[in-house]
Amino acid sequence: MKSLLLIVFSLFSFSVLGQTKPYLSLADAERVYESAAAKAKAEGWNVVIAILDDGGHPILLKKMDGVQIGSVEVALAKAKSAVFFKRPTKVFEDAMKAEGGSRIATLPNAVGVEGGLPIFKDGVIIGSIGVSGVTSAQDGIIALAGVEGF
Amino acid sequence: MKSLLLIVFSLFSFSVLGQTKPYLSLADAERVYESAAAKAKAEGWNVVIAILDDGGHPILLKKMDGVQIGSVEVALAKAKSAVFFKRPTKVFEDAMKAEGGSRIATLPNAVGVEGGLPIFKDGVIIGSIGVSGVTSAQDGIIALAGVEGF
Amino acid sequence: MKSLLLIVFSLFSFSVLGQTKPYLSLADAERVYESAAAKAKAEGWNVVIAILDDGGHPILLKKMDGVQIGSVEVALAKAKSAVFFKRPTKVFEDAMKAEGGSRIATLPNAVGVEGGLPIFKDGVIIGSIGVSGVTSAQDGIIALAGVEGF
Amino acid sequence: MKSLLLIVFSLFSFSVLGQTKPYLSLADAERVYESAAAKAKAEGWNVVIAILDDGGHPILLKKMDGVQIGSVEVALAKAKSAVFFKRPTKVFEDAMKAEGGSRIATLPNAVGVEGGLPIFKDGVIIGSIGVSGVTSAQDGIIALAGVEGF
Question: What range defines the domain where residue A115 resides?
Answer without folding.
Answer: 21-148
